[in-house]
């Protein structure tokens, strides 16, 4: 998988994309992540990538020219399955969307900034708009890092235990059950007896019951999805 990220703040992505699982995925050759500075595609002599909006309104808007040039530079070299724009008014990102994107070969992520982007970019170049939550960030770089991390870890071979990702929270509209490790008792605090029983079926049933109960109490919205409501 190849992910190309277009941003006005490439420095913000250096750390999130070069450590831990995402770094190992790139070292294994299972993922490529390339960060592009939008200013490199500006025709303005001062490398500006924003301008005032038509009509009244506070704040600046990302201009169409450098974005079109950046996207065309990339799409002239290869085909892309999705061109994503990170924006607060996009579709809320979830595990289902991460699963879908992990099956793609090439994607572009355009990081939103300022008061948004010239609407013509959204109308003519963007294939998917994504938000990571109902709040506003300074820019879309952190959102791009979140999307990249959640997608890359799902690529077969990235995790040493491939079943790990399939049992994460949200995969079946359920939160994960509680987990424990050794010792079985610590200062009077004990691991549930059932986890020490050695009966895999009983343990699996208990874990499922716990996941359902946790989801019902902590995320009633997910619980409704789990029940098909």
UniProtKB/TrEMBL annotation:
Question: GO CC terms on record?
Answer: cytosol
Which protein family is named in the record? Belongs to the RNA methyltransferase TrmD family.
- EC number(s) from the headed UniProt entry: 2.1.1.228
Q: Predominant location of this chain?
A: cytoplasm
Biological process terms from the Gene Ontology for this record are: tRNA N1-guanine methylation
Q: What does this protein do?
A: Specifically methylates guanosine-37 in various tRNAs.
Output the InterPro entries linked to this UniProt entry.
Answer: Alpha/beta_knot_MTases (IPR029028), tRNA_m1G_MeTrfase_C_sf (IPR023148), tRNA_m1G_MeTrfase_TrmD (IPR002649), tRNA_m1G_MTases_N (IPR029026), tRNA_MeTrfase_TRMD/TRM10 (IPR016009)
Q: Which UniProt keywords apply?
A: Cytoplasm, Methyltransferase, S-adenosyl-L-methionine, Transferase, tRNA processing
Q: Which organism is it from?
A: Tangfeifania diversioriginum
Q: Where is the tRNA methyltransferase TRMD/TRM10-type domain?
A: 1-225
Q: What is this protein called?
A: tRNA (guanine-N(1)-)-methyltransferase
Q: Looking at the record's lineage, which domain of life comes first?
A: Bacteria
């Amino acid at each position: 998988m190849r992910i190309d990220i277009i941003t006005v703040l490439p420095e913000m992505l250096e750390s999130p994309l070069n450590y831990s699982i995402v770094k190992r995925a790139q070292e294994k050759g299972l993922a490529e992540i390339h960060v592009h500075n939008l200013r490199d595609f500006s025709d303005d002599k001062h490398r500006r990538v924003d301008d005032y909006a038509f009509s009244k309104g506070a704040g600046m808007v990302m201009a169409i020219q450098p974005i079109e040039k950046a996207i065309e530079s990339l799409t002239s070299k290869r085909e892309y399955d999705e061109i994503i724009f990170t924006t607060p008014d996009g579709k809320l990102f979830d595990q289902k969307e991460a699963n879908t994107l992990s099956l793609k070969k090439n994607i572009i992520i355009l990081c939103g900034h300022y008061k948004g982007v010239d609407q013509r970019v959204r109308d003519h170049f963007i294939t998917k708009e994504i938000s990571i939550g109902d709040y506003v960030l300074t820019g879309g770089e952190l959102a791009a890092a979140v999307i990249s991390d959640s997608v890359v870890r799902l690529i077969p071979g990235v995790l040493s235990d491939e079943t790990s990702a399939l049992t994460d929270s949200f995969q079946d509209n359920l939160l994960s059950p509680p987990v424990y490790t050794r010792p079985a008792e610590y200062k009077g605090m004990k691991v549930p007896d059932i986890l020490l029983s050695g009966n895999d079926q009983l343990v699996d049933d208990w874990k499922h019951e716990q996941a359902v109960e946790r989801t019902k109490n902590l995320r009633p919205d997910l619980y409704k999805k789990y029940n098909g409501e």
